[in-house]
UniProtKB/TrEMBL annotation:
Record EC number: 2.3.1.5
SUPFAM superfamilies: Cysteine proteinases (SSF54001)
Pfam families: Acetyltransf_2
Protein name: arylamine N-acetyltransferase
Organism per entry: Elysia crispata
Entry similarity comment: Belongs to the arylamine N-acetyltransferase family.
Amino acid sequence: MSGYSMFTHEEALEFLTNQLGVADAQDRLSWDRRTLLDEITTNLQIRLPFTNLGLMSIERDERRRPNLGEIKRDVLSGKGGLCYHLNVANFYILKALGFNVVLASAAIPVWKTHIIVYVHNVEKTGDTFLAEAGVGYPTFRAICLDHDETPTFRDSFLEYKYIKRDGKLLRLHRQGDLGGGRSLKPVCIDGWRVVYTADLKGTSNIEEFYPKFDQMYIYHLQAQDPLITQFHAVFRLVQFPEKRAVIISNQKLILEKDNGLLETEVLEDGDDAILRAVRRYFPAIPEDMATRALANWRRTLQA
């Protein structure tokens, strides 16, 4: 399906203008491609939530990898999704705009499934940028990968950088890092935690990723290896309105304050408090979807 188009050129421009708030995209494609790419990558994180509620709202034996039409629907509606929604949609948006893009496989050390977008020939022939809009951590720029190590960036609450090592691209976190999974010891390099490793080569054929993400989305397949994903066992939403983090993680509401630090509130009034927080901070999430996801998460805790 390397020739598939999720968006027409006109649909992509309309989405950028009306939903991402990106102005003059058509003109900027000829003279401002780098900052346009920065803005698209950033505004996807500002306007769309990284969330597993779409997955958790489905009864576990009926869960499956979303098809490309469903990804488009959920992005256009503002519901967002996981990396497979957000980065795959970004790939097709950028492709429709005429960027030279590929998808690449990645793995989080504790959890095995991630997918990223590389963009080639942005400022000059032969350059490569990472357009990361779907990891649930702030990445408010496209990252130039023309060297073995990027500068250290600080976006929102987080300090991060990328390095190339042993034929892979590594995302590293330091100050502000929220930590990895609880069950395994984090992988660290000189005080930086490895968040994911990614292939340096990509493909334009989305079908190559279907088996990997079938394992993630189909409950009985991921149940054979719980380290494939955590997202059948949590209630999670992350978004960055005005470039500030807003996170609901199970029964915790986490807000970024003016000083860039995160403040955590335990939502002690039960499901009603969690659903009120979803309505307030994530208004594009349908209430019935949030209610079903919350009920299914509660059942997971009781299993």
